[in-house]
Amino acid sequence: MCQETVQLTLPNLLQMPRYPVSASAGHGRFLHDAKIMDYVPFPADFFTTHVKGNPEDMFIINASGDSMEPTMRDGDMIMIDRSAAVKPINAGIYCFTLGDLNFVKRLQQLPDGILARSDNREYTEFMIKPDQRDEFHPVGRVVWIGRSL
């Protein structure tokens, strides 16, 4: 059998930083002291055709735990768009800190606060009340999930 070496030249490849931070537990400072663990390559047009955002606003971390199953599993890579942290909460999956804990949950703005729900029904939803706003810090919106089979 003849073996050929395939060489792939990708001039339009962007290297997205991945941080060694857990998306469901840890300290509220989140990425403040974290160093880049490695980079995950994506075609440049991925950001205009799929996640519709500026790659400069994106970073990758790993999900931890089973609270968002089946949507995301323990160990999945998740891409966060940090530009969404300064916008009003629009129903979707967000990474945020509340006090000293990091979370990834579905958030929905309601008249009496922000509802945080897990996709795994074993977990109880909770309300982030207006008087907790000083403890609540959105990190960004989850725009992509990647996993190994």
Task: Detail the topology: elements first, then pairings.
Blueprint: E1 13-22, E2 38-43, H1 46-49, E3 58-62, E4 77-81, E5 92-98, E6 101-110, E7 113-117, E8 126-128, E9 136-146
What's the N-to-C terminus distance?
A: 29 Å
Task: State the low-pLDDT regions, or none.
Answer: none
| Biggest beta sheet attributes | 9 strands, mixed
CATH topology: Umud Fragment, subunit A
| CA-based gyration radius | 17 Å
Globally, the shape reads globular
**Count the helices. How many?**
1
Overall SS class:
mainly beta
In total, the number of strands is: 9
Strand residue percentage: 35-45%
Q: What order do the SSEs take from the amino end to the carboxyl end, as H and E?
A: EEHEEEEEEE
Give the rounded overall mean pLDDT: 85
CATH class: Mainly Beta
Number of domains: 1
Name the CATH superfamily classification: Umud Fragment, subunit A
Q: Helix share of residues?
A: under 10%
Physical arrangement of strands within the biggest beta sheet? 2-1-3-4-9-5-6-7-8
**CATH level-two architecture:** Ribbon
